[in-house]
Amino acid sequence: MARGKKTGGRVAGTPNKATASIKAAMLSVYEGLQAKHENPHGHFLEWAESNPTEFYKLASKLLPLQVTGEDGEAIKHEHSLDLTKLSPETLRELAAQG
């Protein structure tokens, strides 16, 4: 393992060429499959209906790994309860729970 300052290789943030090529090929094949259907995503929809578990595995990879609030800050949670909308029974139960 090299020590000290990094020399050579990709600059940070530069996409990997192989990954970009495979992604472009996959998108091209996807578009070709979809072109055979009236619905623009018909072939994919048919596959997803037949393979829901695999579809959800793929879909989950599209979700963000980290979610932040406004301006990159932590998400703020605010809870409020309008007690005037609760029934007298519910209010008594809440009061009994302490």
Low-confidence stretches: none
Helix and strand sequence? HHHH
Portion in strands = under 5%
Sheet having the most strands: none
Termini distance? 61 Å
Number of helices: 4
Oligomer state of the chains in this structure: single chain
Helix/strand-derived category reads mainly alpha
The global form is: flat
Mean pLDDT: 85
Please compute the radius of gyration using only Cα atoms.
26 Å
Number of strands: 0
Helicity range of the residues? 40-55%
Describe the overall structure.
The protein has 98 residues and is mostly helical. The model has no long low-confidence stretch (mean pLDDT 85). It contains 4 helices and no strands. It starts with 16 loop residues before the first helix and ends with a helix. Helix 2 (42-50) crosses helix 3 (52-60). The chain is flat and about 65 Å long. Helix content is 47%, strand content 0%.
List keywords for this structure.
4 helices; 98 residues; mainly alpha; 47% helix; flat
Quick gist of this model?
The protein contains 4 helices and no strands. With 98 residues, it is mainly alpha-helical.
Helices and strands in order:
Blueprint: H1 17-34, H2 42-50, H3 52-60, H4 88-97
